[in-house]
Design a protein that fits this description.
Distance between the termini of chain A: 60 Å
Oligomer: heterotrimer
Structural class of chain A: mainly alpha
Chains: A mainly alpha (103), B mainly alpha (166), C mainly alpha (396)
CATH architecture of the largest domain in chain B: Up-down Bundle
Mean pLDDT of chain A: 89
Structural class of chain B: mainly alpha
CATH class of chain A: Mainly Alpha
Number of helices of chain B: 6
CATH topology of the largest domain in chain B: Four Helix Bundle (Hemerythrin (Met), subunit A)
Number of strands of chain A: 1
Helix content of chain A: over 70%
């Protein structure tokens, strides 16, 4: 086991988590789980930002990561409000059942 | 020691990520996502991002995920049923193959790039709250103010959408 | 000494003292509330009920743990675990005193100092909401679900005024670590008024304490676990050690909130008077307590008091003698004095918590949420803005 971890391993972890997020986004049917896969993708991107910030020895990556978190919070609030409205109107959380535009 | 901590928490993060995608009940997925966020917070600490690690715990794991958990409990979301005639073996194998495919591609790419130094805990001291605060309020002041307006719009939107119709 | 071994010893001492203190905090609460309600509280198990916590622990361990039938076992068992682990972890960054030298070892009276100390405590209390929410949901019971949701909504609503009230002394202290914050509050104005943050920030201190009441689900904000409204709320279905875990988590949260209030606002372990005069105060306090106990022992109200009160008096005089002895041993003096002032301030705030519990009625849920968003949050924000303005105008 090496004494220090190469920077690229963090990037590989970020890629793996991003891939898992994409898999969940494409594959799952429950809309809340789809939304959580989006959050997983955003987290993977945050890790990549912080890793590059370490590599370039600058703090700007942390700031980008901070903005990603803030935008994710805003998106989660509005997205969950939309999910609540869809549930109120269609009584279902499966995205396959919300397939017709006509109510 | 750095490598040991990295492997443990990267392993936990990948396991929780797989569990997020594979579990049927949304609450189990939500808890797995909280596990991912916790292990990522530790990895940020290792990379010298102490403020971002604390912000991840306070904002992401402590507020956004609480919102998710609330909505799941309020809507009484149950476990998903059996999905479109895909066997369990194909489901698990597909997800793992996708993740490992991406990992393999990244590994090949990074092996071709020039070698950089490794991560040593404590080598990057610039991730303090003071450093972030300085940059945030001088260089990135415009994005900061625009983000505040964005949050205000999001709050208004959420209230309007989820309001009871009188 | 090796850093690892030293940390293990410190962790063991802190864990042992904390768990004993939590048990006896419950005894103090029952006695104080009993006397507020003109009754005696626990009296029979051991002298003045001092062995009551032990009896409670034995009862809770040997009681049958009933698990309801249709629950999701994993979440049902996970919830008290999360609650108690997160409540106990916050103590790791709280300093109890300055740097002391015990034999060959020089160390701070703190488990670990991180640069982001206060942010870590805020983060852990944010994640601690899950213990309550999951406990309420996993019990498969509509009262528990309602109690759990209400309690978690209350906790996250009051986190905002808490964080804003914390931000104002951070502006004054210019640092996030607890050690530096206490160091910034040293010194005296006009020679005798301590430079604690509570004097410029009295509004912030009150907002912090009120939000602290709500964060720890204490009266007057304890509707989610009220016995006559929601059948004990989110911990209805938990019995024996799981219930003990939730209980312990509530008291540990109380200790954390009061400790953070002491460090941020009340100057931590620093005495309120300049050094040579304040050394006699612990001796005076304990000697006075011993005299009162002796007085009551000589005129006993009940037959048992003829023996117990003089014993208490002897113990208090012994502690006063120990403080007197420590004046001549500098190694002991720094540690004991710091512990006395820190525990004294934390004890006063905990007594305030218990006193309020015995005195005030509880808020209705909509009144509670209204109070958070319409009263406390603007107050905390105004406090922060005024502090920021003053700091910006007076700094170079």
């Amino acid at each position: 086991m090496p004494a220090s971890v190469p920077l690229s391993w963090y990037l590989i972890l970020s890629a793996v988590l991003f891939g898992l997020g994409v898999a969940g986004f494409i594959y799952r049917r429950n809309i809340i789980t789809v939304f959580m896969s989006i959050e997983l993708m955003l987290n993977a991107v945050n890790l990549s930002f912080v890793t590059f910030s370490y590599g370039l020895k600058q703090v700007d990556g942390h700031i980008f990561s901070f903005f990603v978190m803030v935008v994710a919070a805003a998106e989660a609030a509005v997205g969950l409000a939309i999910i609540l409205t869809v549930f109120k109107n269609r009584q279902t959380l499966m995205i396959d059942d919300v397939s017709s535009m006509k109510y | 020691m750095t490598a040991l901590i990295f492997f443990i928490f990267a392993g936990i993060a990948v396991l929780c990520g797989v569990s997020l995608v594979v579990q049927t009940h949304p609450i189990a997925s939500a808890l797995s996502l909280i596990g991912v966020m916790g292990s990522l917070a530790l990895l940020y600490l290792q990379l010298g991002g102490e403020f971002i690690a604390a912000a991840q715990l306070i904002v992401y794991a402590g507020a956004i995920m609480v919102l998710f958990v609330f909505v799941i409990m309020l809507l009484n979301a149950g476990a998903e049923g059996v999905s479109r005639q895909v066997s369990a073996m194909a489901r698990y194998a597909g997800i793992l193959l996708l993740a490992s495919f991406l990992g393999l591609i990244s590994f090949i790419i990074q092996a071709a790039l020039p070698k950089t130094e490794g991560v040593v805990f404590g080598a990057f001291q610039g991730g303090t709250a003071e450093a972030i605060g300085r940059k945030l309020f001088t260089v990135y002041l415009l994005p900061f103010e625009v983000t505040s307006v964005l949050i205000l719009i999001a709050i208004l939107g959420a209230i309007v959408l989820a309001r009871k119709e009188v | 000494m090796n850093f690892l071994i030293l940390s293990l010893i410190k962790a063991a001492v802190v864990a042992f003292v904390l768990l004993t203190a939590l048990a006896y905090l419950q005894w103090i609460e029952r006695k104080v509330i009993g006397h507020i309600q003109l009754r005696v509280g626990p009296y029979r198990v051991g002298p003045h009920g001092l062995l009551q916590p032990l009896a409670d622990v034995v009862k809770l361990i040997t009681k049958e743990g009933v698990m309801p039938s249709n629950v999701n076992r994993f979440f049902y068992l996970l919830a008290p675990f999360i609650a108690v682990v997160l409540a106990l972890i916050s103590i790791a960054v709280i300093p109890f005193g300055p740097q002391i030298t015990v034999g060959p070892v020089t160390t701070w009276m703190q488990l670990t100092d991180v640069n982001i100390g206060i942010l870590l405590v805020l983060g852990i209390s944010s994640v601690g909401v899950y213990g309550v929410a999951l406990g309420g949901w996993a019990s498969n019971n509509k009262y528990s679900l309602l109690g759990g949701l209400r309690s978690s909504a209350q906790m996250i609503s009051y986190e905002l005024p808490l964080a804003l009230a914390v931000a104002a002394p951070l502006l004054l202290a210019n640092t996030l670590s607890f050690r530096a914050m206490v160091a910034q509050q040293s010194g005296y104005w006009l020679g005798f008024i301590p430079r604690w943050n509570v004097f410029p920030e009295i509004l912030g201190f009150s907002v912090f304490l009120i939000a602290g009441f709500a964060e720890t689900n204490r009266v007057p904000f304890d509707l989610p676990e009220a016995e006559n409204e929601l059948v004990a709320g989110f911990h209805t279905e938990y019995s024996s050690m799981s219930f003990a875990a939730f209980f312990m988590a509530e008291y540990a949260n109380m200790v954390t909130v009061t400790a953070v209030a002491t460090l941020l606002f009340l100057g931590g372990w620093q005495p309120p008077f300049p050094e040579p005069y304040s050394d006699f105060i612990p001796i005076l306090v304990f000697a006075f307590g011993g005299l009162i106990a002796l007085f009551h022992g000589l005129q006993p109200a009940r037959r048992k008091d003829k023996y117990t009160f003089p014993a208490v008096a002897v113990v208090f005089f012994g502690i006063a003698a120990l403080f007197g002895l420590s004046l001549f041993v500098p190694m002991l003096k720094a540690a004991l004095m710091a512990l006395f002032w820190f525990c004294g301030k934390v004890g006063l705030l905990l007594f305030l918590f218990i006193w309020v519990r015995g005195t005030l009625p509880r808020f209705r849920y909509d009144q509670l949420m209204r109070f958070a968003w319409i009263v406390l949050f603007p107050l905390a924000m105004v406090n922060l803005l005024v502090t920021g303005l003053v700091v910006a105008l007076t700094s170079k």
